[in-house]
């Protein structure tokens, strides 16, 4: 065998092996590397509660005039409390662009300590859904839900009263859950929080199992 032919065979063999490797990498590696994360730190849950708050009802000195996120909570229909395990919050995993958006959509209205608020919410609730949404995806999802659910806009569009009916009409007729408090020295109710519920994967709005409302059905609820 001439030495040139020999070199050609070697080259051919390398090419064949390389292509085989690429094929294996494309078709097999993603499966085997995705698989273990499916069971990591999972706490089974059934649906997601997405809670927004009216800043001035939480802190009367707040100047914010948009509903902001309180939390995104993996929950069970039974109402049983979930104890989340999983990987705790890490500041270094937060992309700066997302941080900038969360500064607006998910601020700590009470104390102005956004990092502490995010860490608390993630460790207590977010780690339950770690196998579905990693830390970044979890915060991205909440931020995206906030963009979709502009409560103030929904109330304005439906002329505010009654609050629950207005939010329902803007959400495929799915029941939210709302929380209020009494305004000092009057019978008026102040809207504090609005909860909209999503299915397990955060894709579809569903009826909140706890479809609590405030006051009598037609009582006006203020957010001022
Ligand atoms: C929550 O629901 C999941 C799925 O139905 C179940 O496996 C889990 O045990 C429930 N957790 C609690 C605390 O009830
Ligand atoms: C995660 O953080 C919580 C408090 O936010 C703490 O109680 C818990 O021990 C931490 N878990 C781990 C594994 O560090
Ligand atoms: C987010 O807000 C904090 C102060 O509330 C600020 O220090 C930080 O730079 C902001 N982050 C971004 C990315 O804008
Ligand atoms: C609230 O939930 C209960 C029980 O799931 C249901 O029977 C009722 O119709 C709901 N109310 C509204 C206003 O959707
Ligand atoms: C509430 O308002 C609706 C429509 O405005 C009316 O049909 C209904 O009778 C009222 N219900 C009560 C309890 O006042």
From TrEMBL:
GO process terms (BP): RNA catabolic process
Name of the protein: Uncharacterized protein
Catalytic machinery residues: 70, 121, 125
Keyword annotations: Disulfide bond, Endonuclease, Glycoprotein, Hydrolase, Lyase, Membrane, Nuclease, Signal, Transmembrane, Transmembrane helix
UniProt GO cellular component terms: extracellular region
SUPFAM superfamilies cross-referenced by the UniProt entry: Ribonuclease Rh-like
InterPro entries: Ribonuclease_T2_eukaryotic, RNase_T2-like, RNase_T2-like_sf, RNase_T2_His_AS_1, RNase_T2_His_AS_2
Membrane spanning residue stretches: 6-29
GO MF: hydrolase activity; ribonuclease T2 activity; RNA binding
Role: Self-incompatibility (SI) is the inherited ability of a flowering plant to prevent self-fertilization by discriminating between self and non-self pollen during pollination. In many species, self-incompatibility is controlled by the single, multiallelic locus S.
Similarity-based family: Belongs to the RNase T2 family.
């Amino acid at each position: 065998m001439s030495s040139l032919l020999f070199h050609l065979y070697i080259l051919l063999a390398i090419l064949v092996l390389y292509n085989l490797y690429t094929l294996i990498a494309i078709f097999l590696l993603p499966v085997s590397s995705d698989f273990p994360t499916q069971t990591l730190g999972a706490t089974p849950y059934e649906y997601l509660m997405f809670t927004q708050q009216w800043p001035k009802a939480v802190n009367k000195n707040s100047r914010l005039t948009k509903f902001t996120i309180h939390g995104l909570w993996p929950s069970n229909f039974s109402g049983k409390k979930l104890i989340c395990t999983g990987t705790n919050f890490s500041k270094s995993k937060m992309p700066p662009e997302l941080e900038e958006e969360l500064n607006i959509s998910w601020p700590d209205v009470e104390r102005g300590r956004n990092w502490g608020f995010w860490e608390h919410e993630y460790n207590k609730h977010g780690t339950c859904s770690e196998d579905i949404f990693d830390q970044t995806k979890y915060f991205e999802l909440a931020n995206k839900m906030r963009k979709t659910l502009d409560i103030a806009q929904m109330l304005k569009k439906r002329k505010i009263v009654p609050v629950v009916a207005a939010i329902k009409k803007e959400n495929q007729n799915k029941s939210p859950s709302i929380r209020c408090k009494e305004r000092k020295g009057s019978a008026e109710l102040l809207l504090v929080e609005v909860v909209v519920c999503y299915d397990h994967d955060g894709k579809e709005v569903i009826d909140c199992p706890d479809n609590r409302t405030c006051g009598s059905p037609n009582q006006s609820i203020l957010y001022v």
